[in-house]
User: Fold this.
Amino acid sequence: MVASMTPTTHHRICPLCEACCGLEIKVQDNKVISIRGHEADVLSRGYICPKGAALKDLHEDPDRLRTPLIKRAGEHVPATWDEAFAEIERRLPPVLAAHGRDSVGVVVGNPAAHKIGLLTYFGKLARALGTKNIFSASTLDQMPKQLASGLLFGHWLSIALPDIERTDLLIVLGANPVVSNGSMWTVPDFRGKAKALRARGGEMIVIDPRRTETAALADSHHFIRPNSDVFLLAAMVHTLFAENLIALGSVANWVQGVDEVRAATLPFTPEVCAARCNISAETIRSLARKMAHAKRAALYARIGTCTQEYGTLASWLVDVINTLTGHLDQIGGLLFAKPAAFGSNTQGNAGMGKGISTGRHHSRVSQAPEVYGELPIACMAEEMETAGAGQVRALITVASNPVLSSPDGPRLSAALDKLDFMLSLDIYLNETTRHADVILPGISPLEDFHYDVAFPQMSWRNHARVSHPLFERPEHQPEEWQTILKIAAIVQGKGAQTDANALDDAAFEQAAQRMAGAHAAELMAATAHLRGPRRMVDAALRTGPYGLSLSEVEAARDVGGIDLGELAPRIPELLRTPSGKVELAPASLIQDLARAKQDLNGIRPDLVIIGRRDVRTNNSWMHNLPILAKGPFRCTALVHPQDATKRGMKDGDTVTLRNGSRSVQAIVHVTDEMMPGVVSLPHGWGHNAAGARLAVASERPGSNINALLDPNLRDPLSGNSVLGGVPITMTLAL
Ligand code: SF4
Assistant:
């Protein structure tokens, strides 16, 4: 903890995006005086983006909640923690008692991935509730990638990652890592690594409906029609077979299903697919040949390929191409991380497992299958609106703002108003939490211990790093894991006064059995001095593949963490499929390819909309930070000059974007960085809701692209919402 009049220096991991950069934070007189990149950090090596420095603004934001709020007569008023827990105890158990377990829904947002207490303890609350109505931002983002990877390699977080420092060719499809620094790929300073790739004679190709910041760095860029990646990728696979370019390399003995892939992609000739995806047959063949002929190459695709009708198919075909061209599990190709802790593909029997399954239950109204334990977030409103057994009548939101981040927020907003009870764990009174009856504030990241659970499983380099609190959390505020355990205790009828430490001890005993089996007693003894997430992290490190301990990782904090080296080939030991092979042709995907075949000659709308990522924003919750909010207005609709001229529009005009009965207004920016026929509007905006408390964000609220989108439009396999390639009309606003 910091209370010094002379500046002191501290190191922690940035919690604001997947890149997980190491920060160097100077503190004086209990205030942050500077934040910069930590040069010694083993993962990010001094890199920082503008958002990293905004951590100071987040910590000091007067709108950030510091005490619980209870809604009384329609107004949120401050309350003590005891009062807030008492209100939850008064309101939540009766809903469960009267209507059953599924009557309470839970929705979790992306920031929870950066809060160890939320991430490692949320499951305990979900189990205590026993509800099937679990939703998260995963079905607005990466679920197709996780599903495809799980089917191929046997675990949801076995993600094949480009070996960017050793590759000769990087093809980037529907991703903008110069801005994002990787997504499902933790790669801080992507820009520097891409420049180094080109400086050593390598090539980078970008395929995207917008000439993005990443495209600006590339050797070449191709526009692609949104929602048609599957056709480009299937035609590339077709080409590989047609031209005898298949060479599996060192994984040949560990791959099954090649012939099924060949048969399934036969109809997808480059000529047939060219018109559908707007990339010429010759370019499609050239891309396939480049992948086949390059000694070291990687095809990387992300959000644009996931948030569309064929998200799982597209994500699958990316790794099919990487595999068929011999780049899977190759140095300079695609490799898998080996995390120091929490890696499911470092546990159990090496080389074989249960694989993954979906559809263990279905949503009540749409019959959407469960995927990775959750239902599509776009089903949430209908589950609240539709009467009958299992109707969602109460909701717990955890660091989530689905009113802005999921399709048809206005409908969801109306449904939230009708709930019997709503509880939010959040740092803001925002567009979603304004509906809550009780809001429990989260802890500022600078007041919190942290170890990344998910991102080391997707990092470009293996590492172990930990963050400690710089400041004391507010008096009486529990740690987040304690808050969650108290809510779980309320749900289980044990009462809010239950000692969270005692609950944690009981839960940890079971966890130790899972982690260490016959050695559980030793593990419990070795970690007995710790509680909560610290104990979980210590236990996971001790039972992890490097046999580290929390104290060892802590000791390396100021020298940038522990470097565990470059990624290395891991097949077959990484695999957790039932066959012990890379299952290249899962039946569900081969079957779904028939759906894409039916759409080969599908309608090509005149105008479609896509989202956009900006380096100064990340989803909805950073728009209230002054350092990021200043400068040019970012929530503009990018429109190609042809599309603007055709409609009599010019730069700065306000237009109405319409999708059926849904519409929003936005300010136009005319630019040839867009593909003709495609409009781009970033997501996470629309901060004009009454009752929210976001002073900075509400000054320039922006337009909510998701208000235009149809929650019923989803990738059927993963349940991911279709957020891009949606047909719209655009007219000058009156
Ligand atoms: S890229 Fe920026 S926001 Fe993301 S972790 Fe690094 S400094 Fe933080």
Observations:
- The pocket of iron/sulfur cluster is lined by residues 14, 16-17, 19-21, 48-49, 51-52, 181, 188 (CB under 6 Å).
